[in-house]
Write a structure and sequence with these properties.
The complex is a heterotrimer of chains A (111), B (120) and C (251).
Chain A (H helix, E strand, L loop, with lengths): L1 H33 L6 H8 L3 H30 L4 H25 L1
Chain B lengths: L5 H7 L3 H28 L4 H7 L6 H29 L6 H24 L1
Chain C lengths: L16 E9 L3 E9 L6 H12 L18 E4 L2 E4 L5 H4 L4 E5 L6 E3 L2 E2 L2 H9 L22 H9 L7 H5 L1 H5 L6 H11 L7 H8 L13 H5 L6 H17 L4
Parallel strand pairs in C: 1-5
Antiparallel strand pairs in C: 1-2, 3-4, 3-5, 6-7
Helix pairs in contact in C: 3-7, 4-7, 7-8, 7-10, 8-10
The chains are: A mainly alpha (111), B mainly alpha (120), C alpha+beta (251).
């Protein structure tokens, strides 16, 4: 079971990477545009509030980033600290769930 | 007892593909640890004023510099990630070092553009 | 011939005395210092051989062909795994000194000789064994040398199992179960061998925990391989084939 888990974590990591690539490019564009004159709550909400499009984009962004980040951190922790087994996997899952929850909450706040 | 001197070990790791790995790992870790705070702060934007108050401390120059580093981290992780996707999914290319250089160049450019935009 | 006859300087750097710091012992031990006359065009194998013959016969080290075809003389030279017979002292000497240690990530038997068992066991674990698809007495299979598969196998086939890539790899050092670049490179050459009867089996054996997905593409293996092979590319190929096979439900 654990034998194939690494394979599937790898698959999810690469698939989320492919999803994240255009989203991050878009996000970088927004950042470089929006940072002019500082960022305000009004400016953000004017762009995203009530927008189904932004909700879907950022929603997908949050889901993908949550999985991608958790799998990535899990790998680092395993190699550097030697932590492995079910406890590590549980911690990684908790991180993913927590991050996705916080993220979707943020998406809800701005859209 | 390690039988390799730390200086020798550092020298052995002193090549582009390793720098690229290090940049990818460090930027990934930084971004993963930054995201919870980022999402939390954005979550206050239900009210524009609440958000503005939450980020009021970020207008100082040192913070802008840190933000530039974070944005560069995002850019290097993206560019490095695209390099890796190409490495793993396309047939092997002899242009590996060029790709690494382009990735670092892209991240530098993004960081500088951010600073330029943020400071004017 | 006495040592007085052999005090010519090495070209370009005026070296007359070569200092060697050599690991003695097993897992526990220490570095011992030796000094020998430097010679023109001396290789590291020449140097360690002089130490063993003239200064300390109890020094243990490996070599066989001494002409760069067998891989037996692999060891850490100033922290990088190299074939000592193919390494000129003048290329690696620093401040008139060289440090020699046994190959990284392998148990030490004595001094500069390591126990290669885990290296070869991982080759087995990674399925590095040709699986016949038909009885042996049939006609020879015709393999087009220009086919993509044959070219991929050709690029990976010349591995002689010297262990330099294994000792170069940080992931091997960080994860004792990692199959390692040589074993995975061998698996790739079999995956591309159209005569092999169990491609799926080969892929399954490396799509495991501490298998090909543990590689982070550092390319230290490719940088150091004395045969100029590229295990990183082979491992990328394995990842590619496994990704497709996994999504198709073939694994």
């Amino acid at each position: 079971m654990a034998q194939r888990m690494e394979l599937w974590l790898y698959v999810v990591q690469r698939l989320t990477a492919m999803i994240l690539a255009p989203l991050v490019l878009l996000h970088l564009g927004v950042i470089l545009y929006a940072i002019q004159g500082g960022v305000t709550g009004e400016e953000i909400l004017a762009r995203t509030q009530g927008s189904l499009g932004w909700m879907l984009v950022y929603g997908l962004f949050v889901l993908s980033a949550g999985l991608h980040g958790a799998i990535g951190l899990r790998g680092i922790v395993r190699e550097l600290l030697g932590w492995h087994g079910p406890s590590l996997n549980l911690a990684a899952l908790a991180f993913a769930v927590g991050l996705i929850w916080l993220g979707l909450r943020a998406v809800g706040a701005v859209t | 007892m390690s039988r390799i001197a730390p200086l020798d070990a550092a020298r052995a790791r002193n090549h582009p593909a390793y720098w690229a790995f290090l940049a990818h790992r460090l930027s990934g870790a930084a971004l993963a640890l930054f995201l919870p705070a980022h999402f939390y702060v954005l979550g206050t934007a239900v009210e524009a004023d609440a958000f503005n108050q939450a980020i009021a401390w970020t207008s100082s120059l040192p913070v802008k510099l840190m933000e530039a580093l974070l944005v560069s981290a995002l850019a290097i992780h993206l560019a490095g990630g695209l390099r890796l996707l190409a490495l793993e999914f396309l047939p092997w290319s002899p242009q590996q070092k060029s790709r690494i250089a382009i990735a670092f160049g892209f991240a530098l450019a993004v960081g500088l553009i951010f600073l330029f935009q943020a400071l004017r | 011939m006495t040592s007085a006859d052999r005090t010519a300087t090495a070209p370009g750097n005026g070296l007359t005395i070569l200092k060697l710091s050599i690991w003695r012992g097993a897992e526990e031990g220490r570095f011992e210092e030796f000094e020998i006359p430097a010679e023109d065009r001396m290789t590291v194998l020449d140097a360690v051989t002089i130490v063993q013959r003239k200064l300390d016969p109890s020094l243990s080290y490996r070599f066989a062909c001494r002409v760069g075809v067998c891989g037996s003389c692999a060891m850490m030279v100033n922290g990088t795994p190299r074939w000592t017979c193919r390494t000129h002292v003048s290329k690696v000497v620093r401040d008139g000194q060289i440090t020699l240690a046994p190959l990284r990530s392998l148990p030490v038997i004595k001094d500069l000789a390591t126990d290669m068992s885990t290296f070869f066991e991982k080759n087995e674990k990674a399925g590095g064994r040709f699986v016949p698809s038909r009885e042996g007495h049939r006609d020879i299979v015709s393999v087009d040398p220009k086919s993509r598969q044959r070219k991929r196998a050709d690029a990976a086939i010349e591995c002689i199992g010297c262990g330099v890539c294994y000792a170069s790899c940080d992931v091997v050092a960080w994860n004792k179960d990692y199959l390692g670049p040589a074993a995975l490179n061998r698996a790739w050459s079999l995956v591309n061998d159209e005569r092999d009867g169990d491609k799926a089996g080969h892929l399954k054996k490396v799509a495991v925990d501490a298998g090909c997905h543990a590689c982070h593409s550092h390319q230290a293996c490719a940088n150091n391989c004395p045969q100029m092979l590229n295990p990183t590319a082979s491992i990328a190929g394995l990842k590619r084939e496994i990704f497709a096979a996994a999504l198709k439900g073939e694994l």
